[in-house]
Write a structure and sequence with these properties.
Mean pLDDT: 77
Structural class: alpha/beta
CATH class of the domain at 47-154: Alpha Beta
CATH topology of the domain at 47-154: Glutaredoxin
Order of helices and strands: HEHEHEHEEH
Low-confidence stretches: 19-38
Strand order of the largest sheet: 1-3-2-4-5
Largest sheet: 5 strands, mixed
Shape: elongated
Distance between the termini: 66 Å
CATH architecture of the domain at 47-154: 3-Layer(aba) Sandwich
CATH superfamily of the domain at 47-154: Glutaredoxin
Number of helices: 5
Helix content: 25-40%
Radius of gyration: 19 Å
Length: 158
């Protein structure tokens, strides 16, 4: 009984030290669902959309089509789709395609959860929705972004 208690105390202590970042964790250590794995979702090219800016984002004057990447920072599956999302954004920008605007919404933020839920993005991460300007109902285009060439073909750009 005493050995089990000591083992439990040691395990809880290690978990606390790891989560408190007292013990170092290597950047890519562990499985893809490791919450300490760092995926860089903050890049200047992609606008942060939150509950306050969602309506303004959808009514943007300078873009006909708007994309929002719904994600959670701890989601391992989000990383590959995010990299494809950025590749498509950069390719469209290089080719001067200005009618598509790219945004991202962190559904892990409590303030954004209701918007993510209303858009249907909380059921499964990641989700990429395409909106026509002024429309608050998006089309799920996540499958097209599983392959960069398929996503570019979706926008008639190759």
């Amino acid at each position: 009984m005493m050995k089990q208690f000591v083992f439990a105390v040691v395990m809880v202590s290690l978990l606390w030290l790891t989560s408190a970042k007292v013990l170092p964790i290597k950047e890519n250590e562990g499985k893809s669902h490791n919450i300490h794995k760092r995926v860089v979702f903050n890049v200047d090219e992609v606008e942060d959309v939150d509950v306050r800016s969602f309506g303004d984002y959808l009514n943007t004057e300078n873009a006909q089509q708007l994309l929002i990447f719904y994600y959670a920072p701890w989601c391992g599956v989000c990383e590959k789709l995010w990299n494809n999302y950025l590749a498509v954004e950069r390719t469209l920008a290089q080719q001067g395609v200005g009618y598509v605007k790219f945004g991202r919404m962190n559904c892990d933020w409590i303030s954004n959860r209701m918007t993510c839920m209303q858009q249907g993005a909380l059921r499964q991460y990641p989700k990429i929705y395409l909106y026509e300007r002024g429309q608050d109902v998006g089309t799920d285009v996540s499958d097209e972004f599983k392959d960069v060439d398929a996503a570019l073909a979706y926008f008639n750009v190759l």
